[in-house]
Amino acid sequence: MIYNDREPIYLQIMNDIKYQIVLGNLKVEERLLSIKEQSQHMGVNPNTIARVYSELEREQIVHKEKGLGTFVTPDESIIMKLKNEIAKENIIRFVARMQKIGICGENMKDMLARYLSEKHNEEKLL
Amino acid sequence: MIYNDREPIYLQIMNDIKYQIVLGNLKVEERLLSIKEQSQHMGVNPNTIARVYSELEREQIVHKEKGLGTFVTPDESIIMKLKNEIAKENIIRFVARMQKIGICGENMKDMLARYLSEKHNEEKLL
Amino acid sequence: MIYNDREPIYLQIMNDIKYQIVLGNLKVEERLLSIKEQSQHMGVNPNTIARVYSELEREQIVHKEKGLGTFVTPDESIIMKLKNEIAKENIIRFVARMQKIGICGENMKDMLARYLSEKHNEEKLL
Amino acid sequence: MIYNDREPIYLQIMNDIKYQIVLGNLKVEERLLSIKEQSQHMGVNPNTIARVYSELEREQIVHKEKGLGTFVTPDESIIMKLKNEIAKENIIRFVARMQKIGICGENMKDMLARYLSEKHNEEKLL
DNA sequence: GTGGTCTAGACCACA
DNA sequence: GTGGTCTAGACCACC
Lengths: 126, 126, 126, 126
Hints:
Arc Repressor Mutant, subunit A, mainly alpha, DNA-binding
């Protein structure tokens, strides 16, 4: 009912970084930009980045080392878990939306399969 | 990379009403709130609602009758088409997000099927 | 370049009455409504109707008889001439518009013939 | 029976621009005046021009490019279609008026042909 | 600079 | 009452 909502910036940035990690753009043990660099790069207040890094640390996705910087976790299993969490969130949201407009599980599977095969054929043509 | 984007209000309201119709909260031939009522109800300018209703009319989802009001189309097939459009949009968004984190089509189908059967079992227990 | 123009009311009413006469709704020698009646009937100022009747008299389409009223001319040839004038005006305006968008005489004839035969066929189906 | 009707300004301006395009005064891919320039030039509110340009875009007659301006379509076939639409509207109006005064299709064709040949002869004399 | 969105409030025709 | 049109002027993102 409220139309001016948008996701808080720090959540958007957190998701951004999670995606970078899951996609492998940010590799295991890689150093993130410093808070100052990152804040300039994104045109955002340094406090916002600080919050992002702290939340990511709480979720054990990065770890800070005093005087050195912030680093992606060395633990690949955490990254795999992260990937599965994101995937599961997507699935939950998808199913909820489809059920909301009255589409049952079997139809979801059919429609997904059909769309994927359409998409596949289109891409072969390019 | 852009954090301040927001869907225009008129599009949000359009989607809102489309959902109401697809969900059956607004039935075939039912009268919508008048532009002025709706604008007060939503705390939005009447011109914004007028635009919403006009766009919906262009898409043949509602029709306006001067002096009487705005009504949901009597044509059930248009509503079915609308439902399929919304479903397709959901699928496209879902697939895009899954591909973005590196999950292929086969995995999407598997994960969806697994989630649905889990959910099914949980609901049987309740 | 001026967008708020419209035909003066008295000209609109004159044309209305000419059409009524040409179509035979107002017959030869028939009495028109009195100025007062006509003005009430049309929701228009009596002076406007008076001007209409005077102009029509100047064009010899009606004649006033003191104390009796205003009557359609008894002269059928004037009515025929009127019909031809209206037709000719229509043709002139039509040709001018078509030339303005670069359509030559032959094309006008073709398009007219085609439209008339389409229309003819449609009307047979009803 | 209604004497105070007036075409909405935005429709008048739309037709104006369509004519300019069909006549070739506005050429393929040519930039229109910006919304603000056009509104000043025509002594009309910018929103009115914005509506005109949006409707023309919906009809694929122009396309807008953010930050650059509004341009006539590069697609000549759309312009040809537009020309034919305008011609057809003229024909429809012409036929309706002629029928209204009791002139049948054959007579319309004759009168048009006669007028065109008269006109043709006159122009040769000049 | 461009167009896109939104507000506030006016007057109109129709019924 | 309804929707339709129009104005005046605001702020925004994109280029």
